[in-house]
């Protein structure tokens, strides 16, 4: 969740937050007052405060949806009621407060003399933060690169470990976040799991849809917060993030927003499983042309070569450039940045977002170099 709510222990307890904060990079949108208007532009339910409040909330939801947002993206709101009677204000407040649920943002409830439309009794003004569609890593979103991703990395025996974990946990439904070209998602679908694959790289999803058993997977362009918005009824037993997916969330805000969305998408007691590299092993030291060079003969394309170039190591973040050279002489570069969090940082962030870490294992294909984390959402 991008919006963080704050309460003051020094002030009286209320059913709304005293303040809200957002990342400095977020885009704010100031919404026009949501009014109780029907499709024909006339005021609905004249004289009925509660019915108009419901209409206002519905119109507010629609405006946010048109922007790719929802009520959880609201930073603050002001509720206006055309009445001098406190009981009327309370009726309206109860409707609005119920609609927002646990996202009890800072709010002002006001009685006013009159509102702008005939028979209008209620209006809600709001400020929201627009969720940004995640930027896909160039190596996955360029069609030429996506087409050769699997041939350049054909051995995916590392995914057998994740299949075994899914069986161990008894998961029947799985959301694969950062599913890429769909190798793991289609493996699960072939075994009878209900699978949703989500990824911000449209080109990778295009490749995924061509694979055997792809018709058994529900594919979504986006990330976990997008899945939460666009599939509000989705609940799964297991969420997975294989390969480097968990490390692409460079900022704490992005990582925690991802975890909050995953928690909301899991059934009570459901699990999150992901891998993350051990920082002390300094994997980036081998991200150079000599150590990382790889070539493969790709059917229908020819010999394709790839290698990495280390660009920057700054604290816990590492930026590198992948180069892919095609038979026609074209070389396509793609930059990536990964965050190398310590085991303690990973555990603390999971706990903060409502998970309990059940196990941390060695990745079988990178013993001592990579952790596989199994966390459980509270029941």
From TrEMBL:
Q: In which domain of life is the source organism classified? A: Bacteria
The residues forming the signal peptide are none
What's an example of a GO molecular-function annotation for this chain? transferase activity
List each copy of the Methyltransferase domain by range: 174-270
Which keywords are on file for this protein? Transferase
Q: Magnesium: present as a keyword of the record? A: no
Q: Which Gene3D superfamilies does this chain map to?
A: RutC-like, Vaccinia Virus protein VP39
User: Entry's InterPro entries?
Assistant: Methyltransf_25 (IPR041698), RutC-like_sf (IPR035959), SAM-dependent_MTases_sf (IPR029063), YjgF/YER057c/UK114 (IPR006175)
Q: Which PANTHER family match?
A: TRANS-ACONITATE 2-METHYLTRANSFERASE-RELATED (PTHR43861)
Q: Tell me what this protein is called.
A: Enamine deaminase RidA, house cleaning of reactive enamine intermediates, YjgF/YER057c/UK114 family
